[in-house]
Amino acid sequence: MNRRKKKKPQVDYLELAKEKFNAIDWQELKQRVLEKWNLLPKLHQRALMVLVPVLAILLIIPLPNSKPEQEQVSSAPSQRVEVNINTRSLSDQKSAQQQSLASDAWKEYEVKSGDTLAQVFRNNGLAMSDLSALVKVEGSDKPLSRIKQGQLVRFKLEESGQLDILQLEKNNQSVMFFRLSDGGFGRSK
């Protein structure tokens, strides 16, 4: 028993193409094309006489390899940017450095007995639509739903008065929610 695989016969495709090309009856093909051509209205014939050469030239001439700016930007390797975010609890952040960073844009609110986050938003003139957007990214530990008396809630407003950053303390750690470029919110751990 011979277990070797048989070699497939090699096909000379160039020779095969030449045979097919020589087998074409050019006189008959020319006559059929002329019959179809004469069935077309004169206006269509003229349009085809202009469009076919133009299309052939466009297919032959290569186009420049210019890409739109958006594609070039996205193909550039992404670079990581280090952002220093303080995630210590708010009660531990009373250092001189933190006091010097305080600005008019940051506001603080200490949660009173019976307060809900909705009441905190109402008391500080914040949009309830922002609260519903925050709840969507809250996470399974529910830091927004479980605020307690004495807890410190800090928020920063944009120049337009819209909520930009919300920071609150949870289990001696700070949880921060921030506005994304699409208008929604994201959360730091």
From TrEMBL:
GO terms for molecular function: peptidoglycan binding. Residues 107-155 form the LysM domain. InterPro entries: LysM, LysM_Opacity-associatedA, OapA_N. This is Lysine transporter LysM.
